[in-house]
Amino acid sequence: MNVDLHPYVVFLPTEQKNKILGAIFGSKAAVDILRFSLSQGISNIIYQKDLVRKLAYSNKTIIGNLKSLTKLGVLSEYMEKIEKEGRIVWVKAYQLSDVGKWFALLLAEEKDLSRGEKAEILRNIFRAYIKWIKNISEKLHVNKGALEKIFNEEIK
Question: 12-108 architecture in CATH?
């Protein structure tokens, strides 16, 4: 079987894993919010009014999903001051958290990511994985020198 595989990696907070997966993948609206965030740029801010305008969901559905994703730490919520028609107005702004970025990237097509974005993803995955290995090795009292030796053998 000759199939191209994409190496999806997701780091989940252990205590909320099931809630996060259910909130995102149990709701098409939540998935569409992540897709929208991805289309705007993975680190860019999104606004509720843009989601209501671009997605085929009611304001109530979008607000409910934004609240749920924020509560679970997939999105970060901010208040932003903007000037509109000569008046200053406060609006809610949302941005993918680090965990949220991993979920959004699950939905991304590799061809839609730039080489720089792919390189940044690789560096972030590598750093997170190394931290995870370090913590586990300390708990299991595994010699760091042995892990370093394996790394050096494989990186050559």
Answer: Orthogonal Bundle (1.10)
Which residue carries 């996060």 as its tokens? 20
- CA dist 105 and 108 (Å) reads 5
Query: pTM of the full predicted structure?
Result: 0.70
Residue ranges of the alpha helices (H) in the chain? 17-25, 28-40, 48-54, 59-71, 98-107, 115-139, 144-155
What band does 42 get if pLDDT is binned at 50, 70 and 90? confident
Q: How far apart are CA 101 and CA 106, in angstroms?
A: 9
Among 90, 98, 73, 79, smallest CA distance to 9 is for: 98
Ordered by start, the domain boundaries in the chain are 12-108, 114-156
**Mean pLDDT of the region 121-132:** 83
Measure the CA–CA gap between 50 and 113, rounded to whole angstroms: 23
Instruction: Report CA-CA distances (Å) from 47 to 20, 29, 60, 63, 98.
Output: 21, 15, 14, 11, 18
8-31 pLDDT tens trace:
666 666 677 667 777 777 888 988
